[in-house]
Automatic annotation (TrEMBL):
<dbReference type="GO" id="GO:0007031">
    <property type="term" value="P:peroxisome organization"/>
</dbReference>
<dbReference type="InterPro" id="IPR049450">
    <property type="entry name" value="ACOT8-like_C"/>
</dbReference>
<feature type="region of interest" description="Disordered">
    <location>
        <begin position="1"/>
        <end position="20"/>
    </location>
</feature>
<dbReference type="InterPro" id="IPR049449">
    <property type="entry name" value="TesB_ACOT8-like_N"/>
</dbReference>
<dbReference type="Pfam" id="PF20789">
    <property type="entry name" value="4HBT_3C"/>
</dbReference>
<feature type="domain" description="Acyl-CoA thioesterase-like C-terminal">
    <location>
        <begin position="194"/>
        <end position="308"/>
    </location>
</feature>
<keyword id="KW-0378">Hydrolase</keyword>
<dbReference type="InterPro" id="IPR029069">
    <property type="entry name" value="HotDog_dom_sf"/>
</dbReference>
<comment type="function">
    <text>Catalyzes the hydrolysis of acyl-CoAs into free fatty acids and coenzyme A (CoASH), regulating their respective intracellular levels. Displays no strong substrate specificity with respect to the carboxylic acid moiety of Acyl-CoAs. Hydrolyzes medium length (C2 to C20) straight-chain, saturated and unsaturated acyl-CoAS but is inactive towards substrates with longer aliphatic chains. Moreover, it catalyzes the hydrolysis of CoA esters of bile acids, such as choloyl-CoA and chenodeoxycholoyl-CoA and competes with bile acid CoA:amino acid N-acyltransferase (BAAT).</text>
</comment>
<dbReference type="InterPro" id="IPR003703">
    <property type="entry name" value="Acyl_CoA_thio"/>
</dbReference>
<dbReference type="GO" id="GO:0033882">
    <property type="term" value="F:choloyl-CoA hydrolase activity"/>
</dbReference>
<protein>
    <recommendedName>
        <fullName>Acyl-coenzyme A thioesterase 8</fullName>
        <ecNumber>3.1.2.1</ecNumber>
        <ecNumber>3.1.2.11</ecNumber>
        <ecNumber>3.1.2.2</ecNumber>
        <ecNumber>3.1.2.27</ecNumber>
        <ecNumber>3.1.2.3</ecNumber>
        <ecNumber>3.1.2.5</ecNumber>
    </recommendedName>
</protein>
<feature type="domain" description="Acyl-CoA thioesterase-like N-terminal HotDog">
    <location>
        <begin position="48"/>
        <end position="131"/>
    </location>
</feature>
<dbReference type="Pfam" id="PF13622">
    <property type="entry name" value="4HBT_3"/>
</dbReference>
<dbReference type="GO" id="GO:0005782">
    <property type="term" value="C:peroxisomal matrix"/>
</dbReference>
<keyword id="KW-0962">Peroxisome biogenesis</keyword>
<keyword id="KW-0719">Serine esterase</keyword>
Length: 320
C-alpha cells in the first residue's frame, strides 16, 4: 500500500480535472471544500447542504477543517489521521472560520490543530496528523465483505421513488419523502440492504452501502480525497446505533466526536463500500465505527464516532 501511495499526483489527471466542465466537477470541490483564505492559517468556509436539524452537518465541518490543516503542510505529506470534538452546534446562517495552529513539524509526522469558529466561539476542535511516505514490510488488513456490486443496486433516490408508489403511504410520509428527494446532497449512495438501511425492521447494528461524491474530482489530489471521505464518513454513521430499536425514533441526535484513519490511496468520486457497525450503546450515547473499502478490496480508511442519541417511542400507526 505504501508503495502505491508513493505514486505522486499525476500531472495529466490534474490538468484533465482543470479542463472538466464546471457542471461535472463535484460541488464538494468547487464549493464545500473550497475555502477562502482570509490570512495566514485563517480560512472561511460556507455551506452547501444543511440537514433538517438546522445545525451544520458534522462531516462538512470535519472536511473543511482537514482542508484548512492540509493547506499548511507540504506536498510530500499525506493525511493519516484526525481526531475531532463537536463542542457546539454549527449555525447554518453564518460562515465558519478555521484557525490553524502549526502544532509540530517533525521529520516523519506533522501535526496541526484546527479550531472551527462561529460567533467568536469554537464549534469544533480538530487535530490532524500527516506523514511522509515510509514503506514498511508490516502490511495486513481484514478482508472486504462480499456484497453485490453498486451496478446491481438502487440509489437512495430510486428507492424513495419506489417507496412513494406504495398505496398505503400517509400524506405526511409522502411529503417527508418528497422533501428528501428535493434535497441536493452532494453524495450518491446505494444501500446494500435497503430494508435494513431504513430500519423497517429491527436488526443488528450493522449496515453497508456504496457511496461516492457526486461529480468529477479526478485522481490528482490525495489530500482532497481524504477531505471528501471525511465529509462522507459522517453521513450515515450514527444512524447505525439505532438499527436494533425500531420501536424508537430519534428525538435528538448529534455526533460528539469523530476520529478517522487513512490507510491507502483512493478516489472519493469512485464507488467505495462503507461498512458501518455499532458495538455499544448506553447512557444516551452510542459508538459507531466504519471501514471504507475500495472496490478492489483495499481498506482505504477507518473511522469511529460517538454520538448523543435521545429517543422517543414510534407512534403505532407510523408508516415510516
Ligand atoms: C450526522 C450527525 C451530525 O452531523 S450531528 C452535527 C455535528 N455535531 C454537533 O453539532 C454537536 C455539537 N455539540 C453540541 O451541540 C453540544 O456539545 C451537545 C452535544 C448538544 C452537548 O451540549 P449540552 O449543553 O451538554 O446539551 P444537552 O445534551 O444537555 O442537551 C441537548 C438537547 O437534549 C435535551 N436534553 C438534555 N438532557 C436531556 C434528558 N435527560 N432527557 C431528554 N432530553 C434532554 C436538551 O434539552 C437539548 O435539547 P434542545 O437542543 O434544547 O432541543
Amino acid at each position: 500500500l505504501k508503495e502505491e501511495q508513493s505514486k505522486n499526483p499525476d500531472e495529466s489527471s490534474e490538468s484533465s480535472a482543470a479542463q472538466c466542465p464546471q457542471d461535472l466537477r463535484s460541488v464538494l470541490v468547487t464549493s464545500v471544500l473550497n475555502l477562502e483564505q482570509l490570512d495566514i492559517d485563517l480560512y472561511r468556509g460556507t455551506h452547501h447542504w444543511v440537514p433538517r436539524t438546522q445545525r451544520l452537518f458534522g462531516g462538512q465541518i470535519i472536511g473543511q477543517a482537514l482542508v484548512a490543516a492540509a493547506k499548511s503542510v507540504g506536498d510530500n505529506l499525506y493525511a493519516h489521521s484526525l481526531h475531532c470534538y463537536f463542542v457546539r452546534a454549527g449555525d447554518p446562517k453564518v460562515p465558519v472560520l478555521y484557525q490553524v495552529d502549526r502544532t509540530r513539524d517533525g521529520r516523519s509526522f506533522t501535526v496541526r490543530s484546527v479550531k472551527a469558529i462561529q460567533h467568536g466561539q469554537p464549534i469544533l476542535i480538530c487535530q490532524a496528523s500527516f506523514q511522509v511516505l515510509q514503506p514498511s514490510p508490516l502490511q495486513h488488513q481484514f478482508p472486504m465483505p462480499v456484497v453485490p456490486q453498486p451496478e446491481d443496486l438502487l440509489t437512495v433516490e430510486e428507492l424513495i421513488q419506489r417507496y412513494l408508489s406504495k398505496p398505503d403511504l400517509t400524506e405526511s410520509a409522502k411529503q417527508g419523502l418528497n422533501k428528501l428527494l428535493a434535497t441536493e446532497v452532494p453524495i450518491e449512495m446505494k444501500p446494500v440492504s435497503p430494508a435494513h438501511f431504513y430500519r423497517f425492521a429491527p436488526g443488528e447494528p450493522r449496515r453497508l452501502f456504496w457511496a461516492r461524491a457526486r461529480g468529477y474530482i479526478g485522481e490528482g489530489d490525495m489530500k482532497l480525497h481524504c477531505c471528501v471521505a471525511a465529509y462522507v464518513s459522517d453521513f450515515a454513521l450514527l444512524g447505525t446505533v439505532l438499527l436494533p430499536y425500531s420501536k424508537y425514533k430519534a428525538r435528538f441526535t448529534a455526533s460528539l466526536d469523530h476520529a478517522m484513519w487513512f490507510h491507502s490511496t483512493f478516489r472519493s468520486d469512485e464507488w467505495m463500500l462503507y461498512e458501518c457497525d455499532s458495538p455499544w450503546a448506553g447512557s444516551s450515547r452510542g459508538l459507531a465505527q466504519c471501514r471504507l473499502w475500495r472496490r478492489d478490496g483495499v481498506l482505504a480508511a477507518s473511522c469511529s464516532q460517538e454520538g448523543v442519541l435521545r429517543v422517543k417511542p414510534v407512534a403505532e400507526n407510523s408508516k415510516l
